[in-house]
Amino acid sequence: MNIIILTVGKLKEKYLKMGIEEFTKRLGSYAKIDLIEVTDEKAPESLGEADMEIVKKKEAERILAKIGADAYVISLVIEGKMKTSEQLAADLDSLMTYGRSKVVFVIGGSLGLHDSVMTRSDELLSFSKMTFPHQMMKLILLEQVYRAFRIINGAPYHK
């Protein structure tokens, strides 16, 4: 399986980079992992609705340019469906079984995702109703994907 984690913005925090590197390494025995970052649109702190939409649209164009037609796309959004780790594992296992071997997880920028990305998505996933820094979500997502592969393979992993 080929897992692509597609994120907006460059990761700067060393502690997050270290965690991401660790889980990417662990996942290497289960799947091919690609981490793709697209540049975030520079914008002032206070934006009106129309300007926010413009920023999200520009980021969406960069995101959509990186997604192939054959990809199964799962976008992380607060309003998405929440799952247990076991449900995520079962879903990934099902995708592999039925030939959907390229899965793209999308994490938007600080303003979220434009509707065009959500329309392209096959699934909307939420980790919580709380807001997390999008850079931190990359690490959390990688840990959950690793956990899913451990579950799929019947391997022990802490609960």
Automatic annotation (TrEMBL):
Gene that specifies this protein: rlmH
Organism field: Sporosarcina limicola
Binding site for S-adenosyl-L-methionine: 76, 108, 127-132
This enzyme's EC code(s): 2.1.1.177
Tree of life domain: Bacteria
UniProt-annotated location(s): Cytoplasm
Reaction catalyzed: pseudouridine(1915) in 23S rRNA + S-adenosyl-L-methionine = N(3)-methylpseudouridine(1915) in 23S rRNA + S-adenosyl-L-homocysteine + H(+)
Stored Gene3D superfamilies: 3.40.1280.10
Subunit structure: Homodimer.
Alphabetical list of Pfam families matching this protein: SPOUT_MTase (PF02590)
The protein's name in its UniProt record: Ribosomal RNA large subunit methyltransferase H
Broad class of the protein's primary localization: cytoplasm
A GO term, aspect molecular function: rRNA (pseudouridine-N3-)-methyltransferase activity
UniProt keyword annotations, A-Z: Cytoplasm, Methyltransferase, rRNA processing, S-adenosyl-L-methionine, Transferase
InterPro entries on file: Alpha/beta_knot_MTases, RlmH-like, tRNA_m1G_MTases_N
